[in-house]
Amino acid sequence: MLHNTLSISDYLDNISNEQESLVALLNKVCKKIAPVWPLENFVAVNPYLGLTDKKFGNVAQELADAGGIQMTLPAAFYLQKIQEGKISHKDLANALKKNNESTSVNEFINAINKDLDKNTVKSPVATVADIATQVTQKDWNRFVTSRISVWASSYFDNGQAIWTAADKNEGLFASWKAEAEVDHTPELTGLKGFRKLAKALPHNPIEAIQTALDKLEVPEEGLPLYLHRILLRVGGWSAYVARLDWDSELYGDKGGKLIELLAVLTCWEAC
Question: Once rounded to an integer, what is the mean pLDDT over residues 93-97?
Fold first, then answer.
């Protein structure tokens, strides 16, 4: 059943003054996701396309926080190369100077060795699903990712499947919302009242994101990292949708499908 005939472009064309800052933030976060093309017409894309305005170290820190992504080999690898002489003290001195570091080479090596002794691996910023997994010892993160993937594979199916469940005549968020309202799986798994909560969500994906964020009470300064984190939770789908936006924008459209996917992700967190 068709719940809503408005597209994301319609919503973006009619945002309120109160929504302007949120939409600007959503667009900024979505630009961090590089698009990916299907195999039949694959195009190689810099995976850091949306982060090229930042320094390598800052990007490495952001991706580690947002998705547990490591842009370098472990520090132990480089220490071994130093011991083998393949990385010289002169190389290190030049690198430290280039980055305006006042630390000496020996102090730098000692600091790395101390970090290795601690044997700590920093985890990405926690989502609600992450915390629920820790508290209940039930893998909610995997469950949420699985449910999103099941819906997305149906919605974006291009004829491979014999039967598809998602209504492609609706927008991305509207399709997910309509399916979530009748999906018994979350409640059978333990998410009581999921269908009722999904039904109560606004049809407008931007309003739905605001509703979810208000409920989650994510600090304003942490929103960019949090939103980036949940996009990377389903990185493959995020990159696929980013490509759809890329194509739309080439023809003068506003895109916005990745914002709709963010609405799905934030609402899952809030429900």
Answer: 90
Residue 22 is assigned to a structural domain of this protein: yes
Tell me the whole-structure pTM to 2 decimals. 0.80
Separation between Cα atoms, residue 64 and residue 195, nearest integer Å: 34
Selection from 201, 175, 139 nearest residue 193 by Cα: 201
Considering 63, 84, 118, which residue would you say is the last residue of a domain? 118
Same domain, residue pair 134 and 193? yes
Q: Are residues 171 and 208 in the same domain?
A: yes
What percent of the chain has a predicted confidence (pLDDT) above 70? 90
Whether residue 64 is contained in a domain is answered as no
* Domain boundaries, position 110: 71-118
Crossing angle of helices 223-233 and 140-155, in 10° steps, is 70
Which of 81-85, 137-141, 155-159 is most confident? Answer: 137-141
CA distance 128 to 270: 8
Distances (CA, A) of 197 to 148, 179, 269: 17, 13, 12
**Do 100 and 213 belong together in one domain?**
no
CA pair distance 225, 125, nearest whole angstrom? 8
Return the pLDDT at 58: 81
